[in-house]
Design brief:
single chain; Immunoglobulin-like; 2 domains; 21 strands
Length: 251
């Protein structure tokens, strides 16, 4: 059974504000490493489980910025704002403030690839203790510069194709990753201590399942557009659907 929520969030990128019956609580920019400590308290909780599905779209004009580099080529497209043909917004992280003992499911080896002079994936979801392989698949010099507040920061060269290192975060945090050789290259490692977090794909959809019924604070974060919070209600046996539109403010 689906609970199609009547809430449509319309969000101004410049002000990071939202209009509607429910109003996000805070606004903050995300250009620097940010602690991901959990405020792990459900507002209310009852027995049973439900799901949350959010569709993200971007209604502003998408800049088609191309980057030229003698080694990387002339057709690199900046990946800080990835929007589909129907305005689907990729790489939005959503997560709940929730007190839970639910364990993470087993997942395949995590890898970040420096390929085509971009970090692939741009945003990686991880948990404390994961061993993340970061490799260079390009026939040019890269480095891995990790900026973290609560985890170990590193700055290591990957001088040739096939070079790789392993990085192991131990604490929940949003971790910035850069290549100083190619300043447009950037990405994020999102480390959470519980599995109730998800990332929107190329279809603009992010989904959480098996959530204990109750009311929670939902966080939505795009690393170029900002962060907002919204209360959501999860009902037993139902899927709560939300539509979130990011709209660039008119000047």
């Amino acid at each position: 059974m689906r609970n199609v929520a009547p809430l449509l969030l319309v969000c101004s990128i410049a002000l990071l504000s939202c209009e509607g019956k429910s109003t996000p609580i805070t606004n903050e920019q995300s250009s620097a490493p940010t602690s991901a400590k959990d405020n792990t308290t459900a507002l209310t909780s009852v027995k049973g489980n439900g799901s949350l599905k959010v569709k993200f779209t971007y209604l502003g004009k998408v800049p088609k910025k191309k980057i030229s580099d003698p080694y990387c080529g002339d057709d690199i497209i900046a990946d800080n704002l990835l929007v589909g043909e129907n305005k689907e917004l990729k790489d939005v992280v959503m997560y709940l403030d929730i007190d839970t003992e639910k364990k993470f499911e087993n997942q395949p080896e995590l890898t970040i690839d420096q390929k085509g002079c971009l970090f692939i994936p741009k945003v990686l979801l991880a948990k404390p203790g994961d061993k993340i392989k970061i490799k260079n698949s390009d026939d040019t010099l890269h480095n891995v510069h990790i900026l973290a507040d609560l985890n170990t920061g590193i700055n290591s060269g990957l001088p040739r194709q096939g070079s790789e290192i392993t990085y192991e975060p131990t604490t929940a945090e949003f971790i910035k990753i850069m290549c100083d050789v190619h300043p447009w290259m950037g990405g994020w490692i999102v480390v959470r201590k519980h599995p109730y977090y998800a990332l929107s794909g190329s279809d603009g959809v992010a989904e959480l399942k098996d959530i204990p019924a109750g009311k929670y604070k939902l966080h939505l974060r795009h690393f170029s557009l900002g962060h907002m919070e919204q209360e959501v209600e999860i009902k037993d046996g139902e899927t709560t659907d939300l539509a979130v539109e990011f709209v660039k403010e008119k000047k």
